[in-house]
Design a protein that fits this description.
single chain, 215 residues, mainly alpha, globular
C-alpha cells in the first residue's frame, strides 16, 4: 500500500508540475521569467508531496536515489511509471487550455547555433548540479532535513534554468521534455537531452556514494 501511495504521489506531483510549468512558460516574456516560473512550480509541488514520496518528479532523481542507496530499484520502477503518466496527463491539461492552432507548447529546444553535442554537455552539467543537490539532502550528515527542501530545490532549478534556458532550454527532466515532444510529434534533438541527463544520473551518484559519502 505504501508503494501505491508513493507512486500516486509521484504521478500527481509530476502532473501538477507539468501543468503549472508549461502554462507559465507560455505566458512569460523572458528567459528569467520562464526560469523562475519553473523553479517556483517545482517548489510548490515539492512542498506538497516531499513528505509522501520525496517528490522526485524526475526519473533521473529516482535513478540517482537508487544508486546512492536511499531507494530500492523496484520502487524506482513504480516511480518511473507514475512520473511518465503524470508528465503526459499534466501536459495534456496545459495543452488543452491553449487554442487549437497553438504550436510548440512547452517543447524543449536548443538555442540558435547550439548543436546536439553542446546540448549533451550543457544538460550533463546542469543535471549534475541538480543531482548533487539531491544527494546532499539525502546524505545522513544532513539528517534528511526537509524543512527547506522545497525552497532549496526550487531556487536551484530557477538558477540552473537562468544559466541554461537560452542554450539548451534547460530540460533537466527527460519526461518533462518527452511528453510535449511526443504529443506534438517534434523529436528534434531529443536524444541529446537523454544522453546528457542519463550520464549525470549515473556519474553523480557513483561519485557521491563511493567518494563523498561517509561509511
Amino acid at each position: 500500500m505504501d508503494v501505491v501511495k508513493k507512486s500516486l504521489s509521484e504521478f500527481t506531483g509530476t502532473a501538477m508540475l507539468m501543468t503549472l510549468g508549461c502554462t507559465i512558460s507560455q505566458f512569460t516574456n523572458s528567459d528569467a521569467e520562464t526560469s523562475f516560473g519553473w523553479g517556483f512550480s517545482y517548489a510548490t509541488v515539492i512542498h506538497t508531496f516531499a513528505f509522501l514520496s520525496g517528490a522526485h518528479l524526475n526519473p533521473w532523481v529516482s535513478v540517482c536515489a537508487t544508486i546512492v542507496g536511499v531507494m530500492e530499484w523496484q520502487l524506482m520502477l513504480f516511480y518511473f511509471l507514475g512520473q511518465l503518466l503524470g508528465a503526459f496527463v499534466g501536459f495534456g491539461f496545459a495543452y488543452a487550455a491553449f487554442p487549437e492552432n497553438s504550436k510548440d507548447i512547452c517543447l524543449t529546444v536548443p538555442g540558435a547555433h547550439v548543436d546536439a553535442w553542446k546540448v549533451i554537455f550543457i544538460e550533463l552539467f546542469l543535471s549534475a548540479l541538480l543531482l548533487f543537490a539531491f544527494c546532499a539532502i539525502w546524505d545522513k550528515r544532513s539528517n534528511l532535513d526537509y524543512d527547506s527542501h522545497s525552497l532549496r530545490i526550487g531556487l536551484i532549478i530557477a538558477g540552473l534554468c537562468l544559466a541554461g534556458q537560452a542554450s539548451s532550454g534547460c530540460s533537466l527532466n527527460f519526461f518533462r521534455s518527452l511528453a510535449p515532444a511526443l504529443t506534438q510529434l517534434n523529436f528534434d534533438g531529443l536524444w541529446a537531452y537523454f544522453i546528457g541527463q542519463i550520464l549525470a544520473a549515473v556519474l553523480v551518484p557513483l561519485l557521491w556514494r563511493f567518494v563523498i559519502a561517509e561509511e
